[in-house]
């Protein structure tokens, strides 16, 4: 079995990806495939926490123009991430993998509250920990949540799953001359203004010296490939 490069990681999955080819909601075959990929990755003896976005259900910024305050809209967005985590927990459990949703909000009938000690406990028990509710604060993103929680739980890296296989000098879908970076420093990622992650997330990663690996999740098995050093992506570190 290939040996993983990291002991504990936070995987960031965008909500939008969970919609598959639908414009909205959860595409069950996609979430099932991702659950399978996560299980395969965990079998490399890596402790996995997953931050799931909510853009497939709700984005705060989109309603703030329609009379709902941004803070209220963002709260609705954070609740959308809870739904995605519950769906992913079910998909993992159907495949025989124990998982736990830990939320930034108190919702005892739904899932447990995130605490560092609960996360450590469940990760040590080989459960996949699903981190729901974003940071619990409006005006942030789930990318920032991934970096924050990674720093809090002592993860070795954030694996940022996207539709493209790394950070490019320009949008590769629009500009055929765009080139992929093998490696960037946090400062270069910030200064370059690359759209792949928001500036708050990059700034917190620089502050906490947290490596971020940007990779494509389009192919099955890509999380495991990145963990075992075979996958293609951009490393943002240093
Ligand atoms: N959100 C928030 N605070 C957080 C994380 C998320 O307010 O700490 C809200 C925000 O409205 C955002 C929505 O939740 O638009 C969904 O998160 P995000 O856009 O990061 O999801 P993704 O793009 O990964 O699907």
Describe the structure.
With 238 residues, this protein is α/β, with parallel strands linked by helices. The chain has a domain at 8-165: Carbamate kinase (3-Layer(aba) Sandwich). It is built from nine helices and nine strands. A nine-stranded mixed beta sheet has the order 4-3-5-2-1-6-8-9-7, with helices on both faces. 46% of the residues are buried. It binds uridine-5'-diphosphate (UDP). Residues 14-16, 53-55, 59-61, 73-74, 77-78, 81, 134-135, 137-138, 140-143, 145 line the site of uridine-5'-diphosphate.
Topology:
Layout: E1 8-13, H1 15-18, H2 28-42, E2 47-52, H3 60-63, H4 70-94, E3 99-103, E4 112-113, H5 116-124, E5 128-132, H6 142-152, E6 157-162, E7 183-184, H7 186-192, H8 199-207, E8 212-216, H9 222-227, E9 233-236
Helix pairs in contact: 2-4, 6-8, 7-8
The structure holds uridine-5'-diphosphate.
